[in-house]
Specification:
With about 325 residues, this protein is of the alpha/beta class. The protein has a single domain, classed as Metal-dependent hydrolases (TIM Barrel, Alpha-Beta Barrel). Helices cover about 50% and strands about 15% of the residues. Strands 1-2-3-4-5-6-7-8 form an eight-stranded parallel beta sheet. Helix 8 links the parallel strand 3 and strand 4. It is globular.
Length: about 325
């Protein structure tokens, strides 16, 4: 159900949740790590969703062995480079990769500044080698609290010209957005766009706060905007993009099943909602799966799928000229 005449874009993909399983195995052997299994078949259940998780934080627990193999800065460079390769191989024309430097650094006590430098270097080299447009979104993880978020922000700002936007992710329920207003203002002062994980673990009030107090231009997930008519009107009026991740939302029990997902209703209301992967390795999916399997299961018509595909270019963190260049790619179908 992907329209080949429209650019294929993923706006919500976590770099650190999309690390190849064979790379995890190779790095585990290279660094003599105590991986729970030593072949793809038996390692997969430890890092991929095999049954729905009771919460977002339980789902995040699956990251343990993805970030746990990042022992050296070269490992961060490698997984960043491979993320771009995988995006290209999926047929994406443009991808925004987001990452939390503190999350990637923590397991093996790396310096978050070095992590940011390595990720930027890996992505930029891959972008040059492979020929796909990539932008980076820096994440501040709520889970570590406001003090660590400031350190994470400082690490990201060390490469401010290489990052397009700031995000706030992690434990939304216990670390509300109002704790991070000053952090987000500093990011905006650096010239960055703002996208915020909101309305995933918490309700519509979290989305209101992200838009009105943090200045969010896009909302990650935003599931719990459903049912708040004034909020939906506000989102449409302000042109706020919603980064929907269908399979991820099922896996975290944010929605009961695909059919319960509000993406169809968002599109019917004129919300600039989009289709994204979130974490390809942990959810065991790619962008084609989300369009061809998850979207129809969520009740989207073909026209609604195409609308979501078009919306992605509208709300992408790209300049008008960059959007024009993507539309003009020579392999774009007429």
């Amino acid at each position: 159900m992907i329209d080949p005449s429209i650019p294929l874009i993923d706006l919500h993909r976590h770099l650190d949740g999309s690390i190849r399983i064979d790379t995890i195995l190779e790095l585990g052997r290279q660094h003599n790590l105590p991986l729970p299994a030593w072949d793809i078949e038996t390692l997969t259940p430890h890092i991929q969703i095999t049954e729905y998780q009771p919460s977002v934080m339980a789902y995040i627990g699956k990251f343990k062995w993805l970030v746990g193999v990042l022992v050296e800065y070269d490992d961060c460079y490698r997984v960043a480079y491979e993320n771009v390769e995988d995006a290209k191989n999926e047929g994406l024309d443009y991808v925004e990769l987001r990452f939390s430097p503190w999350f990637m650094a923590e397991s093996n006590e790396l310096n978050p500044v070095g992590v940011v430098e390595s990720v930027v270097a890996g992505v930029r080299q891959a972008e040059e080698d492979i020929g796909i447009k990539v932008n980076l979104i820096g994440i501040m993880s709520r889970t570590y609290g406001p003090s660590n978020a400031r350190k994470e922000l400082d690490a990201l700002l060390s490469q401010r010209d290489q990052i397009i936007a700031i995000d706030l992710a992690g434990d939304e329920a216990n670390f509300p957005g109002e704790l991070f207003i000053d952090h987000i203002n500093s990011a905006k002062d650096a010239g960055w766009h703002v996208t915020i994980h909101a309305g995933e673990s918490s309700g519509a009030e979290s989305i209101w706060q992200a838009i009105d107090e943090l200045g969010a231009e896009r909302i990650g997930h935003g599931v719990h905007a459903d049912g708040d008519e004034k909020l939906l009107e506000h989102i449409v009026e302000k042109g706020i993009g919603i980064e929907s991740s269908l399979t991820s939302n099922v896996h975290t029990s944010t929605v009961q099943d695909y059919a319960s997902h509000p993406l169809r209703r968002f599109l019917e209301r004129g919300v600039l909602a989009t289709i994204n992967t979130d974490n390809t390795t942990i959810s065991g999916i790619n962008i084609e799966y989300e369009y061809n399997v998850a979207a129809p299961a969520a009740g989207l018509t073909g026209d609604q799928v195409y609308q979501a595909q078009r919306n992605a270019l509208v709300v992408a963190f790209l300049s008008p000229s960059e959007k024009k260049n993507i539309l003009a790619k020579p392999n774009r179908a007429a």
